[in-house]
Write a structure and sequence with these properties.
heterotrimer; A mainly alpha; B mainly alpha; C alpha/beta; A: mainly alpha; 2 strands; C: D-Maltodextrin-Binding Protein, domain 2; D-Maltodextrin-Binding Protein, domain 2; 2 domains; 10-stranded mixed sheet; 11 helices; globular; disordered N terminus
Chain lengths: 500, 150, 317
């Protein structure tokens, strides 16, 4: 039976749709401001006239391609094309700057395929049991998860801890601006209509990451990225060997990505951050995360692509979409007359399984397609003269920001935040802690308020915050991540002292 | 650089830290007006955290002056031109339409980023490639993704 | 297969309807249908359901885009700045468009919005897990009376339909429950299924979507919902509660009366389609037909009711 579904996913039409979806998704994802959500929303009506399974394959392929495509802009322009690729910038851009952009793009492709496969296989074989993860996570677990994510600030800002923490707090304040999500107040707008919608994550990402790069680029005549004299083809072999050496990292990050993907309140950006944090915690002494460490890119890219399969688990099993793109796929399914929920795997089994196999095939197709597009993207970014590259990217930031919700205010906010980010970045306040605060702030706030409300109602606040096993585990991981690296560093320093 | 106490990096770092403290104070003040306790807790906690950490970095920097940080080398008019062109684009977009305002941004960015000598040929090539890039993106967003661009 | 043939039938009917319909105003080319929320909510789902019927009946594409922010306020504040040629419409939701402007200046007022049609509502309902000890509404009331404030109920947002319903019902039943706000119905349902809260203030749509994982205790309708013939209404149980979240569309206020009327007729046409009605009912929605002609009276009654509830709850001054 299962094999039959595999064969029906292999029809020429489905293969073509998967390939087209991956390519289109990669392009969409690589443009900052263009999100998978938007591409899917536009394409849904086209799928009404298709077989449900084919429609789903197309949508799933676009989604997974977009998550991978986000890495290009992150690596080559220091601007995450999608929020999922935030942590890709940490090591990707340093690699590109020193002339290893081609290697980084190839690594991202390998890692994305591995992550995508792990996520899709989990969806295929373990969906019903894993969907329980989504339910086991209550408000408090989300709260602690966000604190764990925020603890990454500490290790990101070595030597500048106070500024890093201040940046994180500032980012969290930015996340409060506008109409509060779960309470009935309008906060920190100071009467301005422009700020009522708050700081959108995507426009803030474009502003904080991309605008400073552009401002720095125009000021000096140097080339944007260092290029070796002999422009080699994308270093596929080298990337493959590196990826093989990091099997543990890839698998661990993919599992993290799958699990975080299942959580409806988290998403690809959190998955990437958690996987990065874990890769960094378990790093070998010679690895320098944050300065162009290949393992950093692989951790993030495998984790964020694993969230695609992971996110479909609660979507299909519980009818609860994990991410906005999942929500659109869910809507498309409902219109097609497919009822999601626990019985879906039995009642609409053929559609579901054909879709999952299609997702697997699309992920495999991402390997050649991704390497090819990656090579082209890299070559064009390094060969385009700076005088054309800068205005083109600048134009892209504006059209992309506008398109998020057709708002000129968002463009102004993006530019203002960009200039502000450039200035404070020049004095030691990096963009990443602010972005972490902006993304994790709402998760922390909602988890805290809900957890407090429930805890106070049941008269057991301590038990609520510290008594639940998953919370305790996350808390323990947070402490280990915070305390272990400084201890290890001190021990290493002492050892070296003894040697000299 | 002269003495670290008065260097650009020192003054700027102190100023940014002070600005962060101010942001925290303003937030605390703003939260006084909220009707719902649930919307106060988080910003208040975070604002206090911000004030403490920003004050911390301010005091530490005062005690350990250095000339770390600063705007660095680079040509100011190019930076300003780029930023001005981008803002001009955003502000004029509703009145003159997307393509025209985009052209302002593109031209501004092009002039700002052009460090080589201009001649007729490069001007033509760059101008044309700009038109192609803008046209392609405009078409992609407007007709494929159906974004209602002004 | 069956679905396809129904669609074809609809297309055939649309040709005749189309001829008699538009008089002076008409639509040309794809229509931009803006949802002022993110994807996945009831507003999005209903727009998706309307999409194919619109195409069949009127031959044009309905392009759905999302403009989330400020609980809808960003979208509604921008609506009147858009072109009023009938090619752009936006989803509107009650009680949002009444409560929000009453709380603070959010860039639009209820009267500013040019409402064309209200097409359905999702009736309030109390939802519990299938394995919950609450078999009836009375079980929940008894527990809440014995343990004041200990019955936790999730819901979507504050000063929302769910929140107003909770406050209203607490008062009617003389109980005290604890309302836990979540970001959207989806998150509130997840919390319910995950046993984080004891019950949820949701809608009939939750019951349709989650199937036998959940049980509805009562619905705020005049008569029982056809999808849940065994679930009593609040009225039957002695609580005068009818209402929920209402949805419709609005046009920029620069749109001519004819254009607004055209949209009112077109949505009415879709709403009258038996296949569409069946789909919506299966989804747990309750149909509603309020066109431009009856809009003022409808809005006046709703505004009075919502504002009274919100004032009593202390949500607005």
């Amino acid at each position: 039976m299962e094999f039959g579904h595999f064969l029906s996913a292999l029809t020429p039409l489905n293969l073509a749709l998967a390939l087209f979806g991956v390519v289109a998704g990669t392009v969409v994802g690589s443009i900052p401001g263009l999100t998978a959500t938007m591409a899917l929303a536009v394409l849904v009506p086209i799928t009404f006239s298709m077989e449900p399974a084919s429609a789903l394959i197309l949508l799933g392929a676009i989604y997974t391609g977009a998550i991978y495509g986000g890495a290009y802009a992150a690596i080559l322009l220091n601007t995450p094309g999608t929020p999922s690729a935030i942590a890709t910038t940490f090591d990707g851009y340093p690699m590109a700057k020193r002339g290893d952009g081609d290697l980084a793009v190839a690594l991202a492709c390998f890692a994305s395929v591995v992550g995508g496969l792990v996520g899709a296989l989990a969806l295929l074989f373990l969906a019903p049991p894993l969907s329980k993860v989504a339910l086991a996570f209550g408000p408090i677990e989300y709260f602690w998860l966000s604190i764990f994510g925020l603890s990454l600030i500490a290790s990101l800002s070595t030597g500048n801890l106070m500024k890093g923490l201040a940046g994180g707090a500032f980012g969290m304040l930015l996340s409060c601006v506008g109409v509060a999500e779960i309470s009935a107040d309008i906060r920190l707008t100071f009467g301005s209509q422009m700020l009522i919608g708050g700081f959108g994550v995507v426009s803030a990402l474009i502003g904080l990451y991309c605008i400073p790069v552009l401002i720095d680029l125009v000021a000096v005549p140097d080339r944007h990225l260092k290029v070796e004299d002999d422009v080699r083809s994308v270093r596929i072999g080298e990337a493959f060997r590196l990826a093989m050496r990091s099997k543990v990292n890839l698998i661990r990050s993919s599992v993290i990505g799958t699990l975080v993907g299942i959580l409806p309140g988290a998403g690809g950006s959190v998955a990437g951050l958690v996987a990065y944090s874990e890769a960094k915690r378990t790093a070998k002494p010679h690895q320098k995360f944050g300065e162009g460490e290949p393992d950093g890119i692989m951790a993030v890219e495998s984790a964020n692509n694993a969230t695609v399969g992971g996110g479909f688990i609660p979507t299909l099993v519980l009818g609860i979409p994990g991410t906005p793109p999942d929500a659109i796929v869910l809507g498309a399914l409902l219109v097609q007359g497919v009822r999601t929920g626990p019985t879906m795997f039995q009642q609409s089994g053929s559609i579901v399984f054909t879709f999952i196999y299609g997702l697997l095939i699309a992920t495999v197709l991402m390997l050649p397609a991704g390497l090819l597009i990656g090579r082209y993207a890299y070559k064009s970014i390094v060969t385009i003269p700076k005088a054309v590259l800068v205005p083109s990217v600048a134009f892209m930031t504006i059209i992309g920001t506008f398109a998020i919700r057709n708002s000129v205010s968002d463009v102004l906010i993006m530019l203002g935040l960009g200039v502000f980010g450039w200035i404070i970045g020049r004095f030691g306040f990096a963009a990443s802690p602010i972005v972490l605060g902006l993304i994790l702030g709402p998760i922390a706030e909602q988890g805290f308020v809900q957890g407090w409300t429930i805890g106070a109602a049941t008269g057991n606040l301590t038990g609520m915050f510290f008594g639940r096993p998953i919370s305790q585990a996350i808390l323990a991981f947070t402490l280990v991540t915070l305390i272990l690296p400084p201890l290890m560093a001190r021990r290493r320093a002492r050892k070296e002292e003894r040697h000299t | 650089m002269s003495r670290p106490q008065t260097s650009e990096g020192q003054i700027g770092s102190l100023a940014v830290s002070a600005l962060m403290v101010l942001a925290g104070v303003v937030t605390l003040w703003d939260t006084q007006g909220y009707a719902d306790r649930d919307s106060q807790v988080f910003p208040q906690t975070v604002a206090i955290l911000l004030i403490i950490t920003a004050l911390g970095s301010l005091v530490w920097r005062l005690l350990h002056p250095s000339d770390n940080g600063g705007f660095g080398a680079g040509i100011w008019w190019r930076r300003l031109l780029l930023v001005a062109a981008l803002f001009a684009c955003a502000l004029t977009m509703p009145s003159i339409g997307f393509l025209a305002s985009g052209a302002i941004a593109f031209a501004g960015g092009l002039i700002a980023a052009m460090h080589d000598r201009w001649d007729a040929r490069t001007a033509l090539i760059f101008g044309l490639s700009g038109a192609v890039v803008m046209g392609a993106f405009y078409a992609l967003f407007k007709f494929v993704l159906m974004v209602p661009l002004p | 297969m069956l679905r396809r043939s129904i669609l074809k039938l609809g297309a055939a009917l649309a040709v005749t309807a189309g001829l008699s319909g538009a008089a002076s105003a008409e639509i040309n080319g794809p229509v931009n249908y803006i949802i002022p929320f993110g994807p996945g909510g009831e507003s999005d789902i209903s727009a998706r359901f309307q999409q194919p019927y619109f195409k069949d009946k009127f031959g044009e594409d309905l392009v759905i885009s999302y403009q989330p922010g400020g609980g809808g306020a960003v979208g509604w504040a921008s609506l009147n700045g858009l072109t009023g040629d009938g090619q752009t419409i936006m989803g509107v939701n009650l009680p949002h468009i009444i409560i929000k402007p009453a709380q603070k200046d959010v860039g639009f007022t209820t009267e500013d919005l040019n409402l064309a049609y209200m097409f359905h509502f999702t009736p309030d309902a109390i939802v519990v897990r299938a394995d919950s000890p609450y078999q009836t509404l009375q079980d929940l009331i008894d527990d809440a009376k014995a343990n004041p404030a200990q019955v936790t109920m999730s819901g979507s947002g504050k000063a929302s339909a769910n929140h107003l319903a909770q406050i209203k019902f607490d008062k009617m039943a003389g109980i005290q429950t604890t309302y836990v706000p979540f970001k959207g119905t989806g998150a509130a349902v997840t919390a319910l299924l995950g046993n984080q809260v004891k019950a949820e203030w949701g809608y009939t749509t939750v019951g349709a979507k989650q199937g036998d994982q959940v049980r509805l205790l009562a619905v705020a309708m005049d008569e029982r919902h056809p999808l849940f013939p065994d679930v009593p209404t609040f009225k039957e149980l002695g609580f005068d509660m009818v209402g929920g979240a209402y949805r419709g569309i609005a046009l920029p206020n620069t749109a001519s009366e004819e254009t607004t009327k055209l949209w009112s007729d077109m949505i009415a046409d879709i709403n009258a389609d038996p296949a569409f009605r069946q789909q919506m009912l299966d989804g747990g929605f309750a149909m509603l037909d309020v066109g431009v002609a009856e809009m003022d009276d409808f809005m006046k009654a709703r505004a009075e009711e919502y504002l009274k509830d919100a004032r009593e709850a202390g949500l607005i001054k």
